[in-house]
């Protein structure tokens, strides 16, 4: 605690403004627990950039932690691009303080002689990824905490290819930041270097989204599709309704109670389309309007939740894996019409559904797998410039169509799933029936995600201990099913338990464990890189001989997953 108190007292110096000093003093005198959590470590970059609770301290999002990041990135940019006019693009979402923090970040970049393109109002994260390349920037920043609770904010860093930071840039930038002291931050803006952007970039992004997300559905089919859309109080309201309209989808109902951007997210417990409760109002409107499809996006519009009608006409939520295989299969069919070449590939992550590998094998293309986070898919595109990326995603409700955006993109993905739904409806089918047909062809893949929230310094220790125990006491069975293979990405090693044969994992090191069971079930465990959680991902599969048997097969797989998870005693 002495070390923490010493760190906190540094924030009482003249380097920090009066309000920050007062807040720090208040914590020192009145709230030892909050003081400890605010200062026990430096806020770190995770799978989706840097996210944290807003407040004073080294483990919080504030003008000084973000200012230090920006000062470090400014220095790094000058070293990496010594003979270039440096340019960065900055966007922000609807969260509290996002606009003010974006301006502070712009000020620091400009103070370091770097040209800044700053969006004049909130915009979706995928538009920032697009803008980096469109405006020939070396770097981009978006102020967002994605779907985290209202007290959070965050800082995502993009490189010149439009993708988020990956090795070696991330470690090099972190080192640059850690070498700085807070008094080294230059907050004195050069206003002539800050240019506000809006409609021109919007138009370019809308045009590119429609080009990449629209295919063969007729105007009649599009207008016949009944869509309910909710932005969950986030940024997508600025673009998605307009994109749908221009693409020919005229029958769109917006959930008005959630249409106004609001960092409190007043109508939901969590603004996360992964959570069924978040789409409750949209589902109610869909039943009232007899809509065919519901789409909801998270606050920065990179994830989307989808609901469609099943064979009984009831609205059901698709999980992220189901949405991913539907959209990937559609893109592969479209590519097949044009013809495949040796360089075509789709992409996903090691904790997402193995059904993506089945799709790739069926169409004769490659499926590249990476760690969690779309930055790894963007890296694949950058590392293999002569190959054609068709599309791909991950289980956490993110998808990317082509490579014009190098991050998950709910704007273009919304168009794509509407295209699938419109075409299916015009052929007297449905999205749900398309999914069942995929299951009949490739087998039913049933997935489940368990997320355990462990907050604060004690929670971080608890997560670490859980993973340590899994490594020191390697499970040989989950339920009654034997483990045949264990992959430990922290040591880049896979082990066959029957033979003890070990092989090297080529994917970068990460704190992930994956167990492959003899019956084809897969169980993964990893700490979240953006939230105080440990996550367990389970996938089980079985053949589907007849569409009428789907409910029975699904029920059997749920029981198999229950049996496997009984090992953990949640």
Automatic annotation (TrEMBL):
GO terms for molecular function: magnesium ion binding; phosphopentomutase activity. Its cofactor is Mg(2+). The keyword Isomerase applies. Keywords: Isomerase, Magnesium, Metal-binding, Phosphoprotein. Residues 44-182, 215-307, 319-439 form the Alpha-D-phosphohexomutase alpha/beta/alpha domain. Gene3D superfamilies: Alpha-D-Glucose-1,6-Bisphosphate, subunit A, domain 3 (3.40.120.10), Alpha-D-phosphohexomutase, C-terminal domain (3.30.310.50). GO terms for biological process: carbohydrate metabolic process; purine ribonucleoside salvage. PANTHER family: PHOSPHOGLUCOMUTASE 2B-RELATED, PHOSPHOMANNOMUTASE 45A. Belongs to the phosphohexose mutase family. This is Phosphomannomutase.
């Amino acid at each position: 605690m002495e070390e923490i108190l010493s760190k906190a007292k540094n924030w009482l110096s003249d380097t920090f403004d009066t309000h920050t000093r007062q807040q720090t003093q208040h914590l020192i005198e009145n709230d030892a627990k909050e003081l400890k959590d605010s200062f026990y470590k430096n806020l770190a970059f995770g799978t989706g950039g840097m996210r944290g609770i807003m407040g004073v301290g080294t483990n919080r999002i504030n003008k000084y932690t973000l200012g230090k990041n920006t000062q470090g990135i400014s220095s790094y940019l000058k070293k990496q691009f010594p003979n270039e006019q440096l340019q960065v693009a900055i966007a922000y979402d609807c969260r509290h303080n996002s606009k003010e923090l974006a301006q502070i970040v712009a000020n620091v970049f400009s103070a370091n002689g770097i040209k800044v393109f700053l969006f004049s109002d909130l915009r979706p994260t995928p538009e920032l990824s697009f803008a980096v390349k469109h405006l020939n920037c070396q770097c981009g920043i978006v102020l967002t905490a994605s779907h985290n609770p209202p007290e959070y904010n965050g800082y995502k860093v993009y490189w010149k290819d439009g993708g988020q930071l990956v090795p070696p840039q991330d470690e090099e930038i972190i080192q640059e930041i850690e070498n700085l002291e807070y008094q080294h931050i230059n907050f004195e803006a050069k206003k002539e270097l800050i240019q506000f952007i809006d409609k021109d970039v919007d138009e370019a992004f809308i045009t590119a989204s429609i080009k990449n997300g629209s295919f063969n559905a007729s105007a009649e089919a599009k207008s016949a599709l009944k869509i309910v859309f909710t932005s969950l109080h986030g940024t997508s309201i600025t673009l998605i309704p307009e994109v749908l309209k221009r693409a020919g989808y005229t029958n769109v109902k917006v959930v008005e109670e959630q249409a106004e951007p609001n960092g409190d997210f007043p109508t939901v417990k969590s603004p996360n389309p992964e959570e069924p409760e978040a789409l409750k109002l949209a589902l109610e409107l869909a039943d009232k309007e007899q809509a065919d499809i519901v789409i909801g996006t998270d606050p920065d519009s990179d994830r989307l939740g989808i609901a469609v009608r099943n064979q009984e006409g009831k609205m059901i939520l698709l999980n992220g894996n189901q949405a991913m295989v539907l959209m990937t299969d559609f893109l592969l069919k479209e590519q097949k019409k044009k013809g495949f070449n040796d360089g075509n590939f789709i992409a996903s992550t090691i904790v997402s559904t193995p059904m993506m590998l089945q799709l790739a094998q069926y169409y004769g293309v490659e499926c590249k797998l990476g760690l969690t986070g779309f930055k790894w898919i963007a890296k694949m595109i950058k590392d293999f410039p002569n190959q054609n990326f068709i599309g791909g995603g991950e289980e956490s409700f993110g998808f990317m169509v082509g490579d014009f955006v190098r991050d998950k993109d709910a704007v273009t993905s919304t168009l794509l799933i509407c295209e699938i739904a419109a075409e299916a409806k015009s052929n007297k089918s449905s999205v749900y029936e398309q999914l069942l047909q995929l299951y009949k062809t490739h087998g039913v893949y049933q997935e489940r995600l368990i997320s355990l929230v462990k907050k604060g310094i004690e929670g971080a220790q608890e997560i670490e201990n859980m993973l340590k125990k899994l490594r020191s006491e390697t499970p040989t069975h989950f339920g009654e099913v034997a483990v045949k293979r264990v992959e430990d990405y922290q040591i880049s090693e896979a082990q066959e338990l029957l033979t003890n044969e070990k092989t090297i994992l080529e994917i970068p090191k990460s704190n992930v464990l994956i167990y492959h069971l003899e019956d084809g079930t897969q169980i993964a465990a990893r700490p979240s890189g953006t939230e105080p959680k440990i996550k367990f991902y389970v996938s089980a599969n079985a053949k589907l001989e007849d569409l009428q048997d789907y409910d029975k097969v699904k029920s059997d797989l749920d029981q198999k997953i229950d049996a496997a998870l009984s090992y953990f005693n949640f």
